[in-house]
Design goal:
The chain has 507 residues and is of the alpha+beta class. It contains 17 helices and 23 strands. The chain has a 7-stranded mixed β-sheet. Strands 20-19-21-22-23 form a 5-stranded mixed β-sheet, sandwiched between helices. Helix 2 packs across helix 13, helix 5 packs antiparallel against helix 7 and helix 7 runs antiparallel to helix 8. The two termini are 36 Å apart. The structure holds adenosine-5'-triphosphate.
Length: 507
């Protein structure tokens, strides 16, 4: 197993063992790609959401929030294009009964040829040493050239068939390439079909006319349809933003990467309404702002990169992803898109309502352009968790697992621990707990040796442990232990709050 896959597995089981994330309905063997957050997970998730909300809504005077319902009028999804185009091409293997995304099967096949090329290049590099000219080698080696031309031919055919919606040709290509099912090893494939990712359900009782409605696949449409209500009621002037966090649902075909690809997940989105013509400047502004936000989580900038889209959706005039280096590689964490006036115009057409902004200065009305920032809360959770997870060998030869979470996001800020369970120490610890718990999320524990309790707090990322010992009873001082350095200081009980407040400030 690759080292990183191994790490990913460790993080997944750590998350379960320490009450961060559980498989949904686990006693019934779980539900694929659906997860529940446990006692510490929910705190971390709430803290990330709150930090995002503050950064977007509280710190920007021209951004306000909403909380739209998950159920929306079915025509919303017709107007947004989701009914007709929010789909992936799928194919089933008749022997294994496994379902795959046809585009992913072909991309994986291309990747295998690319890996072959890379292997040859690496081998040659070793053979020739310093003198190796990689560019020339790639341009002249016949075997490499042949493989590269195979890739080019496949890509051309593949993109062409998708653009022409020619799914029969996609199937033909899979046959011609001899792609086999990774599970059964056979080429016994069904036809390729489009599979809409939206979940649907019925609204209304059996006696009434029932209506098919969808579970929203993104939160953004709740913002677009409320554009007028928000603008009028909150007296917003362009440029202004509307932010929202909430659940979204997608019936993902390939969903087996823990929190990275879920069927029920949470998004944090902001739509920024601007004057047409200013959108590319605003797009650049939000690119920079959002990257700053990510690095303010205490994660180094090298773990992030932009991935600008070469192929833009028909309604976008600029788009980029912020990718994060997860244990499974660099993958999308947030999308930033300049969506022109596509969504508002479509809703204007379908609803027959004018969705425009009246500019008092010029006396003109227009449909605003939109910059969207759309980030997955669960993927951010996974980024923070996987970056924070570390296994340490200590000087005395023992080992510990630490979640090096930024203190301001940690589920528990302070552990209150009486050294032993007698001599009046628990009673004194309770007094301290009662003072501090109204300010910080604290955790009281008196069971087990102090060393074990420290380890448990390290494993859930608690930045500080307060220990109440016999000296506390004499001079009202306690020890405060730092999670990362494991060093302890002696401080007065009255000073705890100030010290902790200073230490857990957002970066
Ligand atoms: P991907 O290409 O990975 O499927 P996407 O481009 O479809 O993602 P968007 O529609 O731009 O994603 O959604 C915005 C954000 O929502 C993504 O950047 C991601 O963080 C999050 N997200 C999307 N799909 C999922 C999912 N199935 N599980 C968890 N988070 C998701």
């Amino acid at each position: 197993m690759a080292a990183n896959e191994d790490l990913f597995k460790k993080i997944t089981s750590h998350a379960k063992e320490y009450g961060f994330v559980f498989p949904s309905s686990e006693i019934y063997d779980g539900l694929s790609a659906v997860y529940d957050y446990g006692p510490f997970g929910v705190e971390l998730k709430n803290n990330i959401r709150e930090y995002w909300w503050k950064s977007m809504v509280q710190y920007h005077e021209n951004i306000v929030g909403i909380d739209a319902a998950i159920f929306m009028h079915p025509t919303v999804w017709k107007a947004s294009g989701h009914v007709d185009a929010f789909s992936d091409p799928m194919i089933d293997n008749k022997d294994s009964k496994k379902r795959y995304r046809a585009d992913v099967l072909i991309e994986d096949h291309i990747q295998k040829i690319e890996d072959k090329i890379q292997k040859e290049v690496d081998k040659a590099k070793q053979r020739f040493g310093e003198a190796f000219d990689e560019k020339m080698y790639r341009e002249t080696n016949p075997r490499l050239l042949e493989n590269q031309s195979r890739i080019d031919t496949i890509k051309k055919r593949f993109y062409g068939s998708f653009t022409d919606n020619n799914l029969a040709d996609v199937k033909l290509l899979i046959d011609e390439l001899g792609i086999v099912c990774p599970v059964s090893g056979t080429k016994n494939w069904t036809e390729v079909r489009y599979f809409n990712l939206m979940f649907s359900t019925q609204m209304g009782s059996v006696n009434e006319d029932t209506n098919m409605i969808y579970l929203r696949p993104e939160t953004a449409q709740g913002i677009f349809v409320n554009f007028l209500n928000v603008m009028k009621s909150a007296r917003m002037k362009i440029p202004f933003g509307i932010a929202q966090t909430g659940k979204a649902f997608r019936n993902e075909i390939v969903a087996r990467q823990f929190l990275f690809r879920m069927r029920e997940f949470e998004q944090m989105e902001m739509q920024y309404f601007v004057q047409p013509g200013t959108e590319l400047k605003e797009f650049e502004y939000w690119k920079t702002e959002r990257m700053k936000w990510h690095t303010s989580l205490g994660i180094p900038a090298t773990k992030y990169r932009f991935h600008d889209h070469d192929k833009l959706a028909h309604y976008a005039n600029a788009a980029t992803d912020i990718e994060f280096e997860f244990p499974i590689g660099f993958k999308e964490l947030e999308g930033i898109h300049s969506r022109t006036n596509f969504d508002l115009s479509a809703h204007q057409t379908y609803s027959g309502k004018k969705l425009q902004y009246f500019d008092q200065e010029s006396g003109e009305s227009f449909v605003p352009y939109v910059i969207e920032t759309s980030i997955g809360l669960d993927r951010t959770f996974l980024a923070v968790l996987s970056h924070g997870y570390r296994e340490e060998k200590l000087e005395d030869g023992s080992e510990r697992v630490v979640l090096g979470l930024p203190s301001f996001l940690a589920p528990v800020k302070l552990a209150i621990l009486p050294l032993i369970k007698k001599d009046g120490l628990p009673e004194k610890a309770r007094v301290i707990m009662d003072i501090l718990k109204y300010r910080y999320r604290c955790f009281y524990e008196e069971k087990d040796t102090i060393g074990r309790r420290y380890r448990r707090m390290d494993a859930i990322g608690t930045p500080y442990c307060i220990t109440i010992d016999h000296q506390t009873l004499q001079d009202n001082t306690v020890t405060i232990r730092d999670r990362d350095t494991m060093l302890q200081d002696r401080i007065t009980v009255d000073g705890i709050s100030d010290i902790v407040r200073e230490k857990i400030k957002a970066v």
